[in-house]
């Protein structure tokens, strides 16, 4: 039996989270092992779904809710938009927690890592399961910092829907665009929640327009705010023509009233709501033919008579079709409008059976996740998210099967069904999940243990962390023998360093942070090389002639071509060795020892004596490639970052002056309420320590976001300066 088990680590116990999709009524069964209770109910937590104290009330109700009543969702957003606070309120109103967690106080449920609570940011995704009005919701809180984009990527692969949280005063921000593109890639239905409606500068109209312009999405306004900033006190439900007002004397937001809008008491609000409802009906009718037929038939004379249930069903279809995005608003921090958001999650986002997958598998042990707590369960039905332990060789992005034969059998069955039904789509391809696209690291530094005796322990820790976080790369410097960490940013490597100390008890030392440059060539060159060596009584002989030229299309790996003069019979046995030699040589360029990209290598001549080993062939080819790269005109490529700085207008001038000194290129300056948003590009090498400088010159009032844009050629002056600095550093070593 073939399964889709979508895996990602969720906490420091090194667990893997599994998404077990639509199995057509089949079950996953496990053998329960005697163990200590996995659920630790402290004073902060309310009873988990189906539990009274530590006793299981109905295990079946926990494990096997109807699949139509399951929602697997993620919370995604730009950093500081209020994702974790929104999640905390959701858990509180659903009865999962007894008290309101606060990011600033470091007592939130999903930010349970020590580093998260100290910094007030989400670093690692966390899964939580709770119930809301008869629905089972599996929720994953994801990071918003650009250094942890991969965490969002691997979470979206296991989700059926998502809530995009936006700061109503800022609208769509840089990381919002990134996570939105990731959701587009995985075809995830979404709803938008405009958070922080109580914040100074909050603008519902501005935020909605930013969704339309920047995300290129069609917003469906399901709510209107009653007041903005300090006057925000509730929302209007456009679909049901009701107003929801929160009691200002209520500390936790549970006390609110829902009233129908009447001509007598709310004439202006009613008029505005009716106009918004008509616009919503027309918008949905344009996107859904079934709804259009209904509207133009029975309700063409008076849209006001259209039942709310019919409109809600149509909005659900439109959301699943990814043709529009429902928009709601509120304030998580002030405990307003979170309950309607929960209603919208269950009403408009899909159940697992509405996402097209057919998978199952047998697992040895299953656990139900509650952030950093869990309960062992005997079985799990389709559509749920669970944890498994003990997968020693599994890494993020793997698809697990019970055996090779079962995988082949499932593929053959799918192919037969496909041929029988004459389907256009390839069902066989859907048996394997798409792998996670791992971004290339842009920073690196050396790491050393406190003593050489601890090196094996450090190697083990780094191996575990790499399985959990594929965006972390570890390599060995061939010259110095030092271990090198490669990551997505300063914060990323800082967190890894801290986790090694806290979770593995190892004291380590990081070397200076360095930029991951690359190299290329600007002209063609040719070279030959011969290897003639006798080992024991065996002679190894290889002669190679190669040409290197600039690649016609961008490529991070070398493009390898073979001239017609090269014997195809000879290549049958030696092609793998030849290509290994080319790839190995391109890992270190002649200028900085950085990887070579955008280069084409053509093999013009190859002579190999019988009995020559593949290792000797690779060594000769590698040496020849290094020769030809040295002969060509060489160029250093530096990572260019897309930079977005949000700054009060009073501090705009010093920010622009500082960027000019950093070889920055400002593309545009936008107005965002009372702030200015500077958008441009800056070399990564010039941006180290930028957060400290920006905090100083703006009195702590500015924020910025960085994202890798591309690699660009350095100008001759900057390249010579860099080479002089590097040669000086190597000389001092």
UniProtKB/TrEMBL annotation:
Mitochondrion as UniProt keyword: yes
One GO BP: ribosome disassembly
Q: Which GO terms describe its cellular component?
A: mitochondrial matrix
Q: Which family does it belong to?
A: Belongs to the TRAFAC class translation factor GTPase superfamily. Classic translation factor GTPase family. EF-G/EF-2 subfamily.
Q: Binding residues for GTP, per the UniProt record?
A: 77-84, 141-145, 195-198
Has keyword Mitochondrion?
Answer: yes
Q: Which Pfam families does the UniProt record give?
A: EFG_C, EFG_III, EFG_IV, GTP_EFTU
Q: One GO molecular function term?
A: GTPase activity
PROSITE patterns named in the record: G_TR_1, G_TR_2
InterPro entries according to UniProt = EFG2, EFG_II, EFG_III, EFG_III/V, EFG_V, EFG_V-like, G_TR_CS, P-loop_NTPase
The reaction(s) catalysed by this protein are: GTP + H2O = GDP + phosphate + H(+)
* Function of the molecule: Mitochondrial GTPase that mediates the disassembly of ribosomes from messenger RNA at the termination of mitochondrial protein biosynthesis. Acts in collaboration with MRRF. GTP hydrolysis follows the ribosome disassembly and probably occurs on the ribosome large subunit. Not involved in the GTP-dependent ribosomal translocation step during translation elongation.
Q: Which UniProt keywords apply?
A: GTP-binding, Mitochondrion, Nucleotide-binding, Protein biosynthesis
Annotated ranges, domain Tr-type G:
68-353
Locations listed in the record = Mitochondrion
For this protein's source organism, the top of the classification is: Eukaryota, Metazoa, Chordata, Craniata, Vertebrata
HAMAP family tied to this protein: mEF_G_2
Q: What is this protein called?
A: Ribosome-releasing factor 2, mitochondrial
């Amino acid at each position: 039996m073939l399964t889709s088990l979508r895996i990602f680590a969720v906490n420091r116990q090194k667990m893997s989270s599994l998404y077990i999709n639509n199995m057509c009524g089949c079950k996953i069964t496990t053998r329960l092992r005697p163990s200590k209770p996995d659920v630790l109910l402290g004073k902060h937590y309310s009873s988990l779904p189906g539990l009274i104290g530590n006793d299981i009330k109905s295990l079946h109700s926990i494990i096997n809710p109807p699949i139509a009543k399951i929602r697997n969702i993620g919370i995604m957003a730009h950093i500081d938009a209020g994702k974790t606070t929104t999640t905390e309120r959701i858990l509180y109103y659903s009865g999962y927690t007894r008290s309101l967690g606060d990011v600033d106080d470091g007592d939130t449920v999903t930010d349970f890592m020590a580093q998260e609570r100290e910094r007030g940011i989400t670093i690692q995704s966390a899964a939580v399961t709770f119930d809301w009005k008869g629905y089972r919701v599996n929720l994953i809180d994801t990071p918003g910092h650009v250094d942890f984009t991969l965490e969002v990527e691997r979470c979206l692969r296991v989700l059926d829907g998502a809530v995009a949280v936006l700061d109503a005063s800022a609208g769509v921000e840089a990381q919002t665009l990134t996570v939105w593109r990731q959701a587009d890639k995985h075809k995830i239905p979404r709803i938008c929640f405009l958070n922080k409606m109580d914040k100074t500068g909050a603008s519902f109209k501005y935020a909605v327009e930013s969704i339309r312009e920047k995300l290129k999405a069609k917003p469906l306004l399901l709510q209107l705010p009653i007041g903005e900033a300090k006057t925000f006190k509730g929302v209007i439900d456009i679909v049901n023509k009701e107003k929801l007002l929160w009691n200002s004397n209520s500390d936790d937001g549970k006390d609110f009233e829902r009233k129908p809008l009447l001509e007598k008491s709310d004439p202006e609000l009613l008029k505005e709501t009716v106009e918004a409802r008509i616009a919503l009906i027309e918008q949905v009718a344009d996107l859904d033919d079934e709804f259009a037929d209904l509207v133009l038939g029975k309700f063409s004379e008076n849209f006001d008579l259209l039942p709310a249930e019919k409109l809600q069903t149509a909005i659900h279809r439109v959301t699943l079709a990814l043709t529009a995005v429902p928009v709601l608003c509120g304030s998580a921090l002030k405990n307003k409008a979170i309950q309607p958001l929960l209603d919208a999650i269950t009403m408009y986002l899909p159940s697992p059976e509405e996402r097209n997958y057919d998978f199952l598998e047998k697992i040895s042990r299953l656990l139900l996740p509650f952030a950093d707590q869990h309960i062992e369960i005997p079985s799990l039905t389709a559509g749920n998210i669970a944890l498994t332990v003990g997968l020693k060789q599994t890494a993020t992005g793997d698809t697990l099967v019970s055996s090779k034969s079962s995988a082949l059998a499932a593929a053959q069955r799918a192919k037969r069904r496909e041929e029988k039904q004459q389907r256009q789509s390839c069902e066989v391809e859907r048996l394997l999940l798409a792998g996670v696209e791992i971004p290339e690291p842009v920073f690196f530094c050396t790491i050393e243990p406190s003593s050489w005796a601890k090196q094996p322990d450090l190697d083990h820790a780094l191996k575990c962390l790499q399985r959990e976080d594929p965006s972390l790369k570890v390599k060995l410097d061939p010259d110095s023998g030092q271990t090198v960490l490669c990551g997505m940013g300063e914060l990323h490597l800082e967190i890894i360093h801290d986790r090694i100390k806290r979770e593995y008890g190892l004291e380590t030392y990081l070397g200076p942070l360095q930029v991951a440059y690359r190299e290329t060539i600007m002209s063609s060159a040719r070279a030959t090389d011969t290897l003639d060596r006798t080992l024991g009584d065996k002679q190894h002989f290889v002669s190679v002639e190669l040409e290197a030229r600039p690649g016609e299309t961008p490529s991070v790996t070398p493009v390898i071509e073979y001239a017609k003069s090269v014997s195809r019979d000879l290549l049958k046995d030696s092609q793998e060795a030849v290509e290994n030699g080319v790839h190995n040589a391109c890992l270190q360029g002649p200028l900085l020892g950085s990887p070579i990209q955008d280069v084409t290598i053509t093999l013009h001549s190859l002579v190999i004596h019988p009995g020559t080993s593949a290792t000797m062939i690779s060594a000769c080819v590698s040496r020849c490639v290094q020769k030809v790269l040295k002969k060509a005109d060489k160029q250093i490529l530096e990572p260019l970052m897309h930079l977005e700085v949000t700054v009060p207008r009073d501090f705009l001038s010093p920010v622009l002056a500082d960027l000019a000194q950093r070889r920055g290129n400002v593309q545009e300056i936008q107005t965002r309420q009372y702030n200015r948003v500077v958008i441009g590009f800056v070399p990564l090498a010039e941006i180290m320590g930028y957060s400290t400088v920006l905090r100083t010159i703006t009195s702590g009032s500015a924020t910025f976001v960085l994202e890798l844009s591309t690699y660009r050629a350095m100008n001759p002056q900057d390249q010579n300066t860099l080479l002089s600095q590097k040669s000086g550093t190597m000389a001092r070593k």
